[in-house]
Amino acid sequence: QSSVTVYGIVDTGFSSIDNGTDRTNGLSSGNNSASRIGFKGLEDLGGGLQTEFKLENGISTDDGSGGSGFSRYAYIGLNGAFGKIRMGRQDNQISEAIIKLDPFSAAGVGNARNFYAGGGVPQRQPNMLTWLSNNYGGFSGSLGYIFGEVEDDNSANRGIGAQLSYENGPLNIQLAYQKQNYNGTTNVLGFSGTGADLDDKNILLGATYSFAALKLHGFYGERKLEGPATVAALGTGNFNDKIRTAMLGITIPLGASAIRADYIQNDNKDIDDADNNAWVASYTYSLSKRTTLYATYVRTDNDDNSVMSVSGPSAANFTAGENGSGAYLGINHKF
Amino acid sequence: QSSVTVYGIVDTGFSSIDNGTDRTNGLSSGNNSASRIGFKGLEDLGGGLQTEFKLENGISTDDGSGGSGFSRYAYIGLNGAFGKIRMGRQDNQISEAIIKLDPFSAAGVGNARNFYAGGGVPQRQPNMLTWLSNNYGGFSGSLGYIFGEVEDDNSANRGIGAQLSYENGPLNIQLAYQKQNYNGTTNVLGFSGTGADLDDKNILLGATYSFAALKLHGFYGERKLEGPATVAALGTGNFNDKIRTAMLGITIPLGASAIRADYIQNDNKDIDDADNNAWVASYTYSLSKRTTLYATYVRTDNDDNSVMSVSGPSAANFTAGENGSGAYLGINHKF
Amino acid sequence: QSSVTVYGIVDTGFSSIDNGTDRTNGLSSGNNSASRIGFKGLEDLGGGLQTEFKLENGISTDDGSGGSGFSRYAYIGLNGAFGKIRMGRQDNQISEAIIKLDPFSAAGVGNARNFYAGGGVPQRQPNMLTWLSNNYGGFSGSLGYIFGEVEDDNSANRGIGAQLSYENGPLNIQLAYQKQNYNGTTNVLGFSGTGADLDDKNILLGATYSFAALKLHGFYGERKLEGPATVAALGTGNFNDKIRTAMLGITIPLGASAIRADYIQNDNKDIDDADNNAWVASYTYSLSKRTTLYATYVRTDNDDNSVMSVSGPSAANFTAGENGSGAYLGINHKF
C1 Cβ partners below 8 Å, 6+ apart? Predict the structure, then answer.
């Protein structure tokens, strides 16, 4: 029994979503951080070697629904003098960087990944090999390789990523590159579609700096879609689309409370009237180390050809050009 | 690890089902109480405040099948001087009352919810907010609100419920009201169909009384279906259908053994030849606090336009007007 | 918490599969033994009586996918002077015997069940009643009955099995018989199809013998398919098909390491050019009692009308008459 730990998060709250036309009220799950249940373990193998695993599934604690398997993490790794090597379903490199930079730690309705480059950036990925370095004087990094597992074609559906961190006292700098190929898959960039040979290339640079009373967060990224594809949200074509994205955020710790806010702006350089931006503000109050009350507000502004939505009850459908908003009030409990 | 408890029930037994025409023999799960696996926790927050959660999924321990997610319970709550507030998937109010009144505690093949008003009464529901009062001199109660989560229409698919309990020594009185709207949903009253704007209204009054050697159980309820709908079992129309239901039951504790029995009669006031009734008898023998052997017999009597079935192997199909019966012999183990 | 144990295996590795035409590279799960998560318990009831349960689900730790429910085991049992009685989803008798005879313990890509009689032999089955005897001077046995659960027909889809073991010092002898009927089911012998009234009869005899430096493994079996059916892999007809299968294997323990290998030959007596064979070799190195590194190679040789595949990334499609091979390198961790 000591060889496995059962853990998770139950996060449920009231939500009120405006899709620009109508309002939907209800309960929703994972507003502050995704509701989940997981199993993890760490074994000391001696000689400085460890093996660890994590199996983690996302769940919906408003209605009890949830997929089978482990939708979030399913990896095993070896840790040693060489760093950490992991195989399975895990965060890709751009995701690792956003987690460190986002005031909301890439979690919940304020998750910067939901809004980065208009949404849809791949995050956790299957069939992935990762190397995470040890820390060398504040510098650390990671490399990732995602097997495409296509017959007779190692490059189709392949992903590669690299991340470099520098942490020194109050300063944290993150640089990440991620390239993902889509070839014959039916899910492209999180949308239904078919990528004939589409490359999704991302580069991101950001930093956080902690002052006495607050912490500043910022990143700047560029995303390029290159190649032929048919994507529900984007149409059919030989894409050569560049999106530039910038985030500015702040965290103000106030004892048991905290205020967090950020603004994300996406500038589509190749598709007209497809820019969008989002801003998020939250207030949290910790009842204990494990239990937190939260109130969060999210707003997205869309150009006529953009659909960047906010999270909430599934009935809330978003259409192009409409601005959305969501208000969330709930409780997050870690176990 | 102390912050979460893994628990559940494995209940499997032989079952022999007669659908009025043919007999089906096999194994079935959850005959005495539903096989399940769950994760729960309770955190003391200080100042008389607690937070608790429960995530519980139903499983079939005869064949290993089971849905994903948590089909039974998925809620988080705050407990304090104000009582208990819970959000998520949980029992509605009429279900809370039946659990207290039924000799079978609304569990297993004898579950009075299976037979109340001909079957199909909603029990656990998603997106539900509940308040459970503390006990005031024997009186307690609960209120429930089920969000319909329909865009621009807070009343569609909404449910509300109220329950009042009085417990004093050997006496337990339960009064419950439950109203559920069905609007555009594809599952109406547990049947496939579409409710254009159907209201399902239930009121239930019952009591149990414990004598030295036995306990008596009884309830009387009325269910009204009002409004337009298309329901597989009921046809298409503007419903105005009233069903009256009555239950009489007994529990006879005999040391490690117990005998339970009840009779439920449903009187459909508006549809001809649609009355039905059921009776259930069981003998249980506890091998320990956690492990119980059981033998249970269930019988349903249907009018020509009624299909009230008994639980068992899925191959046993029931048709209108046939009387069904089931015999179950198995083991129930709590962990 | 003491009443349930959470346990499992995470097994992930690199795999390179050749389907005879093309190669597919990637990660795959369960190469050395199936990745899984389970919940089990054992309660002492006093008087020499125990109750035990096991709920175990297969998972894919390369991509996090997995079915709902418990695809591997879901049973409850009573243990006593009479032996063990179990109800639910569990190993059938021929599977119990192969587990004891196979150098790979019927696990992972080398699992002899994958190659026995050309593959497709039923193993774990639902709605099954099993009796396992105690050990009497080295002799033990088990009997199994699988309920078909067909209305008004107890013999349709029914399975029966018997197994006899003799274990004495270095010697282990296994004899098993298994008969499974397929009647109107859509899955026949692991293939899509419909058995009108097909019997699948298996008889298997084998032994292992441990010398000082190595252990020898062998079995010989005969499988008969009798009766009318339509099976995707075999066509439509009134089957009267006999397959003879033989396995020879070796285990060489080398301290923390071990070498295992076997060869399985299948001789189809009634269908021309449908013979096939497989050989498997593995090297394992244990980092601890719970964590093992492995390298495994599998090869299958198919006649023109045979498709016996090797395990690996799902994209690797096998066609009739092609020989397949797979190489696997990974880590297996028990928790």
Answer: A1, B1, B5, B6
Q: At C136, is the pLDDT very low, low, confident or very high (cuts 50, 70, 90)? A: very high
Residue C47 lies in a domain: no
Q: What angle do CA C180, C81, C135 make, to 5 degrees?
A: 65
Contact status of B23 with chain C (Cβ, < 8 Å): yes
Q: Which two tokens stand for residue C291?
A: 């964590």
Q: Is residue A11 part of a domain?
A: no
C50 within some domain: no
Contact across the interface for A63 and B89, Cβ inside 8 Å: yes
* Selected residues 35-94 of chain B with any CB under 8 Å from a CB in chain C: 37, 59-68
Burial B230-260 (b: 16+ CB within 10 A, else e): bbebbeeeebebbbebbbbbbbeeeeeebeb
Identify the CA nearest to A314 among candidates C12, B126, B50, C187: B126
Measured between CA atoms, the residue of chain C closest to residue B9 is: C53
Contact A206, A189 (CB under 8 A): no
Q: ∠C4-C10-C12 over CA atoms, to 5°?
A: 170
Share in percent of chain B as helix, strand, coil (round to 5): 5, 60, 35
Residue of A41, A73, A88 lying closest to C12 (CB–CB):
A88
* Residues ≥6 apart with Cβ < 8 Å to A299: A278, A279, A280, A310, A323, A324, A325, A326
* Pick among A57, A287, A292, A334 to test the B interface (most B CBs inside 10 A): A287
Buried residues in B121-155 as b, exposed as e (16+ CB within 10 A): bbbbbbbbbbebbeeeeeebbbebebbbbbbebee
A225 belongs to a structural domain = yes
Please report, rounded to a whole number, the percentage of residues in chain A having pLDDT higher than 90.
79
Nearest CA in chain C to B61: C74
* Residue A190, pLDDT above cutoff 70: no
User: B residues 212-251 near A, CB within 8 Å?
Assistant: none
| Chain-chain contact of B62 with C127 (C-beta, under 8 angstroms) | yes
d(CA A56, CA A68): 11
C297 near C325, Cβ under 8 Å? yes
Domain count, chain B: 1
Query: Angle A267-A270-A276 (CA atoms, 0-180°, nearest 5)?
Result: 30
Q: Which residues of A are less than 8 Å from B129 in CB distance?
A: 27
Phi, psi of C118 (to 5 degrees): 85, 5
Stretch A196-221: mean pLDDT: 95
Confidence class for position A184, pLDDT limits 50, 70, 90: confident
Cα torsion at B316, C120, C313, C279 (round to 10°)?
Answer: 160
Helix (H), strand (E) at residue B247? strand B235-254
How many Cα neighbours within 13 Å face the side chain of B303?
12
Range of the domain at B208: 5-334
Q: Which residues of B touch A19 (CB under 8 A)?
A: 151
| Mean pLDDT value across chain C | 93
Whether A78 shows a pLDDT value over 50: the answer reads yes
ipTM: 0.95
Nearest CA in chain A to B6: A6
Q: How far is C12 from chain A (nearest CA, A)?
A: 7
B298: contact with C, CB 8 A cutoff? no
Cβ neighbours of B66 in A, within 8 Å: none
Looking at CA atoms only, how far is residue A328 from chain C in angstroms? 30
d(CA B256, CA B253) in angstroms, rounded, equals: 8
Choose the weakest-confidence range: A156-165, B193-202, C37-46.
B193-202
Residue B7 has pLDDT above 50, yes or no: yes
Q: In residues, how long is chain A?
A: 335
Look up residue B40 and give its two tokens: 């729960």
The domain that holds A257 is classified in CATH as 2.40.160.10
Window 140-199 of A, Cβ < 8 Å to B: none
Which residue shows structure tokens 């190489």?
C327
